[in-house]
Amino acid sequence: MDKITRIGVIGGGQLAWMLALAAKEMGLSLWVQTPAATDPAVAVADGVCYGAIADGATTAQLAEHVDVITFENEFVDLERLQHLEQQGVCFYPRLATLAPLLNKYQQRRFLQALGIPVPAFTYLGDRPPSFPCVIKACRHGYDGQGTFVITDEQAWQQFQQRWPEIPPQGFLVEAFVPYVKELAIMAARSPQGEIALYPVVETQQVAAICRWVMAPAPIAPQVSEQIQQMARQILTALDGVGIFGIEFFLTATGEVLVNEIAPRTHNSGHYTIDACVTSQFQQHLRAISGQPLGSPDMRVSAAVMVNLLGLAEPQVDYGAKCQALAALPHANLHWYGKSQTYAGRKLGHITVLLEDPAAAMGIIQEIEAIWYSTPVAV
Ligand code: ADP
């Protein structure tokens, strides 16, 4: 294949923005497909095709400007893209890799067939599920949108009131996992099957949105090895090309279950920009442009990443908070430049590099005290 130097991304949010910054450093050009001129990646992309994420006609236009097309999110119209692939458009990851992943129910089935542990699950039908359980929209869920923890009859009634009819894509219902930690790994694979695994990290979600990430996770080496082994198995079975984020639950008995595979760059890998030899964004671009993978090793002994989410209180002085955060030792602030700042929106993140892993939780609390009026109880 000819040298790949022109990258197309379906999506224009902060992941595409960070991918575009990495592309610039690597001398690659990057175009995005996005509906809104105010999206972060528009300001740094080499070109933009305006259109909805699932609009195949816009992707056809994008294909005229680039050598390979990749994805910022899972909300694409796979059938429309398959026509383009048949006409010779190159997608990485391949569409056959995405096919079992886009629908959460099918993703669970795929993992189950590989013998990888997942929470017990089924389609939501007419009968009430047993509590506690978690109901998830099979498609188009993100940051907890489309995820409902149902603890009791009252929560079930509320869910039914909100969704008197089940939408065509359906809901998945699964057992609530009483996990002790949520873990994640970034894993990259080249078209030749070379794999690079980043360290396993611990993540904390608040209201189903990632709040912080601790790298590496404070876990037993055998748990880490088990997760790395699962990541290898999953990427190989998918014939995946590019970077993948995989999320896990760790239970009190040491059992590891996969929660979700994201076939793209991922929030739990943002720490890699400042803390690793090769960032997840550079690694993804290396993989999809046919360059050898870079080292996923950490350059420091530990790091923490905290998401800076939009706050509910009115008139927040985000500038003053950013200044206070940037003044922390070994802090790297990333501000996405979003034009609207509603509550819960991912506005930026901060990564602090640490010499002593034992200092991680203290730093997270320090950052939370600056940014959030109500720090998370840990
Ligand atoms: P999204 O795709 O919106 O990120 P997830 O399926 O990853 O949705 O769920 C978001 C969060 O909800 C998880 O990170 C976890 O904190 C919680 N959660 C999801 N599924 C379960 C489950 N089966 N048991 C317990 N908590 C869950």
TrEMBL record:
Keyword vocabulary terms for this entry: ATP-binding, Decarboxylase, Ligase, Lyase, Nucleotide-binding, Purine biosynthesis
Pathway assignment: Purine metabolism; IMP biosynthesis via de novo pathway; 5-amino-1-(5-phospho-D-ribosyl)imidazole-4-carboxylate from 5-amino-1-(5-phospho-D-ribosyl)imidazole (N5-CAIR route): step 1/2
Q: Where does ATP bind?
A: 104, 136, 174-177, 182, 259-260
Instruction: Give the InterPro entries listed for this entry.
Output: ATP-grasp, ATP-grasp_carboxylate-amine, ATP_grasp_subdomain_1, PreATP-grasp_dom_sf, PurK, PurK_C, PurT/PurK_preATP-grasp, Rudment_hybrid_motif
Q: Which GO BP terms sit in this record?
A: 'de novo' IMP biosynthetic process
Give the enzyme class. Answer: ligase
**MF GO annotations:** 5-(carboxyamino)imidazole ribonucleotide synthase activity; ATP binding; metal ion binding; phosphoribosylaminoimidazole carboxylase activity
Check the record and name the Pfam families matching this protein: ATP-grasp, PurK_C, RS_preATP-grasp-like
Q: How does it assemble?
A: Homodimer.
Give the record's family classification: Belongs to the PurK/PurT family.
Its recorded name reads N5-carboxyaminoimidazole ribonucleotide synthase
Q: Which organism is it from?
A: Thermosynechococcus vestitus (strain NIES-2133 / IAM M-273 / BP-1)
Q: What is the lineage of its organism?
A: Bacteria, Bacillati, Cyanobacteriota, Cyanophyceae, Acaryochloridales
State the gene name recorded for this protein: purK
